[in-house]
């Protein structure tokens, strides 16, 4: 057994950023800069007047307008459909990738594979967008297929690294002894995986799926490049509105999207915080 | 360095066999090889005459009780105990019947439905035992299962384990670094160090006739005295004959502290020694003595009510090892 090193000498004064002069002022400024615009957007979504700057009383008319708007309905439906399929598909692929990269023990090229899985986080989205535009353009010309498949495929691809991270983190923390115990009790590798590993992995998988869903739901750049005419998602629809007269209807849509994202992210944090 | 080196060992059916050694000696690696979690680079492992060296763990009729118990997370303990039987595809009724029997065997009937955190260390231990015993393996492997328990509970579980082994008739292979535990429970003990098996024998063999200095030192307390063997006799450096031996050359003499009697210095054939100090310990007293050749000896004398076991410090005394107490170890 290794000897435990002696504890480091206790230091009376440790560095703390909170003691720096002006810390409170900076902190307040940052929070205001972050949240004031969002708060304004949310407040004006309830504006009775047709303005994004002059308050005309409380009303839900813009929510009603957005709800009744055929284009918004279709964009929202498309967004949810794409996000659902893309998050499911990317989570399955990310789970397989996470199992492959953590369960084999070190192997040659593992770092390269980690890198390859996570590169999409680093590559500028506009580059991916342009690349997909060119690629799918060619495919379109060959096959004549015009459907949502391109968007689903693109979203699945860029969601994989987001789904991968929490799943891999969960796998690396997991006690492998339980799998050994299952194998010891006559469980074949497949049954040990289904009975022991997968249930333990589930919080990571759910967290990954949720993160992927949010990422897909919020995407603008890649969607903008990949979509065909009449394939607006909610974010690209909103972007399109800026070319016309802007009404608080956009605020209402944005607030709804923000609400959904917040719910999903809260669920994500609740799931990841609870350690198995 | 090899984790295991040249280990040859036969364990009998229904035997309580203990692998004893300091941490890092390879005892757990040997256990993991038997369980199938490790595959040895060379050599074979036979179970009932069949070579199982290449079998994966789930194809071996061998179950393990892990040091940290490794209980499964679900909320109810019954699935834990039923797991092995279910994996073997036993009918439902049989599984339920055996789970109930196992819970009774480890005296846990009332506690079966608690979550693992709600079980005490000793209770988790019992669940782990029941889980590993339920499929009636040919061999049960126990990897330091008592090390997380407190001293009193450990004593209880020692006799409990012995009882379970006798009742089930299953071969137990037990790993521990606690020599007392090994001596108390085992039919036979294998002492390991640095990946090698140093000695295999009954607890009495190991204690009374240690094969090497390491074994003598690791199990119980021992006085080691430098000596010289020749002409069939073993002499201390001061010339006193302490044993007979066919060896020749420098040897080490080992004598257990409690196997030494204190006698008057004038008696014939005793080892002359000076008493340097004594510590009263209740059941016995520890005496620190120095022999004529300068080496120090510890003697452990049982307490007698009302009298001091030891004469005053500085007294000249005679030491007489009890018959069979002097072990001669080759250097």
TrEMBL record, chain A:
Q: Pfam families, per this entry?
A: BPD_transp_1
Q: Which domain of life is it from?
A: Bacteria
Where the record annotates domain ABC transmembrane type-1, the positions are: 76-271
What keywords would UniProt list here? Cell inner membrane, Cell membrane, Membrane, Transmembrane, Transmembrane helix, Transport
Residues forming coiled coils: none
- Per its UniProt record, what InterPro entries does this chain match? Bact_Polyamine_Transport (IPR051789), MetI-like (IPR000515), MetI-like_sf (IPR035906)
Q: How does it sit in the membrane?
A: Multi-pass membrane protein
Principal subcellular localisation of the protein:
membrane
- What are the TM regions of this chain, as residue ranges? 20-46, 80-99, 111-136, 148-167, 196-217, 252-271
Give an example GO biological process.
transmembrane transport
- List the record's Gene Ontology CC terms alphabetically: plasma membrane
Where does it reside?
Cell inner membrane; Cell membrane
What is the documented function of this protein? Required for the activity of the bacterial periplasmic transport system of putrescine and spermidine.
Similarity field: Belongs to the binding-protein-dependent transport system permease family. CysTW subfamily.
Q: What is this protein called?
A: Spermidine/putrescine transport system permease protein PotC
In which organism is this protein found? Rubellimicrobium thermophilum DSM 16684
From TrEMBL, chain B:
Any single GO BP term: putrescine transport
- Whether Protein transport counts among this entry's keywords is no
The ABC transporter domain covers 1-219
Protein keywords = ATP-binding, Nucleotide-binding, Transport
Q: Do you know which Gene3D superfamilies this protein is assigned to?
A: 2.40.50.100, P-loop containing nucleotide triphosphate hydrolases
Alphabetized InterPro entries for the sequence: AAA+_ATPase, ABC_SmlMolc_Importer, ABC_transporter-like_ATP-bd, ABC_transporter-like_CS, Mo/tungstate-bd_C_term_dom, P-loop_NTPase, Transp-assoc_OB_typ2
By what name is this protein known? ABC-type spermidine/putrescine transport system, ATPase component
Q: What is the lineage of its organism?
A: Bacteria, Pseudomonadati, Pseudomonadota, Alphaproteobacteria, Rhodobacterales
């Amino acid at each position: 057994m290794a000897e435990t090193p002696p504890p480091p000498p206790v230091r009376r004064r440790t560095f703390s950023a909170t003691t720096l002069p002006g810390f409170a002022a900076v902190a307040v400024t940052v929070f205001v800069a972050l949240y004031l615009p969002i708060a304004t957007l949310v407040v004006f979504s309830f504006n009775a007047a047709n303005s994004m700057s002059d308050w005309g009383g409380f009303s839900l008319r813009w929510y009603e307008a957005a709800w009744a708007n055929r284009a918004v309905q279709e964009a929202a439906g498309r967004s949810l459909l794409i996000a659902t399929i893309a998050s499911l598909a990317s989570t399955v692929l990310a789970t397989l990738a996470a199992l492959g990269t953590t369960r084999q023990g070190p192997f040659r090229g593992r770092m390269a594979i980690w890198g390859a899985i996570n590169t999409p986080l680093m590559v500028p989205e506009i580059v991916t967008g342009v690349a997909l535009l060119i690629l799918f353009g060619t495919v379109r010309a060959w096959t004549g297929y015009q459907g949502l498949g391109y968007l689903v495929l693109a979203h699945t691809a860029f969601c994989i690294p987001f789904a991968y991270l929490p799943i891999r983190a969960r796998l690396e923390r997991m006690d492998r002894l339980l799998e050994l115990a299952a194998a010891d009790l006559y469980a074949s590798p497949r049954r040990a995986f289904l009975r022991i590993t997968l249930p333990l992995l589930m919080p990571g998988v759910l967290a990954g799926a949720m993160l992927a869903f949010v990422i897909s739901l919020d995407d603008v750049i890649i969607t903008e490049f990949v979509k065909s005419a009449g394939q607006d998602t909610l974010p690209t629809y909103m972007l399109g509105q800026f070319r016309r007269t802007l009404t608080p209807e956009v605020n209402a849509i944005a607030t709804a999207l923000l609400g959904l994202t917040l719910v999903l992210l809260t669920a994500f944090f609740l799931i990841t915080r609870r350690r198995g | 360095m090899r984790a295991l080196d040249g280990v040859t060992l036969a364990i009998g059916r229904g035997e309580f066999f203990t692998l004893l050694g300091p941490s890092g000696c390879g005892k757990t690696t040997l256990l993991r090889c038997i369980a199938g979690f490790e595959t040895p680079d060379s050599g074979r492992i036979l179970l009932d005459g069949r070579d199982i060296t290449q079998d994966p763990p789930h194809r071996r009729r061998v179950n393990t009780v892990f040091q940290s118990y490794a209980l499964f997370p679900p909320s109810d303990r019954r699935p834990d105990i039923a797991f092995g039987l279910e994996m073997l595809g036993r009918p439902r009724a049989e599984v339920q019947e055996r789970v109930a029997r196992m819970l009774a065997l480890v005296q846990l009937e009332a506690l079966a439905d608690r979550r693992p955190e709600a079980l005490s260390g000793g209770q988790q231990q019992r669940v782990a035992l029941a889980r590993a015993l339920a499929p009636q393996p040919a061999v049960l492997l126990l990897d330091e299962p008592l090390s997380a328990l407190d001293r009193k509970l450990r004593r209880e579980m020692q006799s409990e384990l012995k009882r379970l082994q006798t009742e089930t008739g299953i071969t137990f292979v037990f790993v521990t670094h606690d020599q007392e535990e090994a001596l108390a429970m085992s039919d036979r003990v294998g002492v390991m160090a640095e990946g090698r098996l140093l000695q295999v024998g009954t607890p009495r063999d190991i204690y009374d006739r240690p094969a090497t200095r390491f074994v003598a030192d690791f199990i119980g307390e021992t006085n080691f005295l430098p000596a010289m063997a020749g002409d069939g006799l073993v002499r201390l450096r001061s010339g006193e004959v302490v044993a007979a031996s066919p060896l020749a050359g420098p040897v080490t003499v080992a004598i257990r502290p409690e196997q030494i009697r204190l006698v008057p210095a004038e008696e014939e054939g005793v080892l002359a020694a000076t008493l340097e100090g004594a510590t009263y310990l209740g059941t016995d007293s520890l005496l620190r003595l120095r022999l004529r050749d300068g080496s120090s000896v510890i003697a452990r004398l049982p307490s007698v009510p009302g009298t001091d076991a030891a004469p005053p410090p500085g007294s000249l005394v005679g030491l007489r090892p009890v018959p069979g107490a002097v072990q001669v170890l080759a250097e």
